[in-house]
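#onboarding

Welcome to the new folks! Below is a worked example of what a typical request in this channel looks like: someone posts a single protein sequence, and someone else replies with the predicted structure as tokens. Don't worry about understanding the tokens yet, we'll cover that in week two.

Example request:
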Amino acid sequence: MAPVSLSGRRGFLVQSLKGIGASMLGAQALGLTMGLPCTWGIEPLKRVGKPSLRTGLAAYSLRKYLDLKGKNPPTMDIFGFATKAAEWGFEGVEPTSYYFKESSQDYLARFKAHCSKLGLEITGSAVGNDFCVKDGKALDAQIDLAVSWAQKTAAMGGRTLRIFAGKTPKGDTEASAVSRAIDGMKTACKRAEPYGVLMALENHGGITSTADQLLHLVKSVDHPLFAVNLDTGNFRTEDPYGDLERLVPYAAVVQVKVDMHPKGRPQEHVDYNRILDMLAKYGYRGSLVLEYEGAGEPMTAIPLEGARMAELIRAKGL
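Example response:
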């Protein structure tokens, strides 16, 4: 397949600067190391129309029932998860890759049909990868995993695949890990072009612990199929809401956790109003996926949190 056009990203500027792109990337990495701002890279996602939000439920919310690798066999399968999501009033589901007991074409087609009958959108899927691994073959395997699930996500009708960047291996430098992750994500995006699924990078600790770290990766990968999977509960900084807002313009999907962990202050319940106002401000159109990690019993807490989200979305006309 021919490469996806970069028009609308950096367009003519990219072509003009192609010859010095490598040196610019090196300078940008150096700037990050020295605490200097990065001033070039992709533009925010172009949004049209009014803000529009649809509620979704991540399979990870029911991990205690879905876990295929636990000591005891799971008490729910991915089909049962979708049924519960529909029963609780969610509009979509995010079926995480590691809760599929198989991922054959037939199995994925049956799951897609099951969701269609329930009136559920499959928002996307998610993999648990690490693009920071040092071993070349291991890194290739991580890339293969992401590309494989981009294809499977497309087969189910999903729009995004949640990916991780990873964490710096013991004995390595963050600069080296970041460089490998950037190359890995670029390769994965390029290979996944035929499937049209957005590779959505989550702020998930490691080399994405801060907004600056994540923005550096977003600007460095710079591929039309690359975006952000914004997780509201994963910035443990002094101003997590401020950090989240910096990334909303790049977000293709937003996951909501019920707890926030501001640095230096007690854990607090997420302010749904603040999150919704933030998304509306930047014209976000897409899924608001509940990824429940709270202390309450999921079967009781999830429908209550989902109803609260949906009520506020309706009240705000989103």
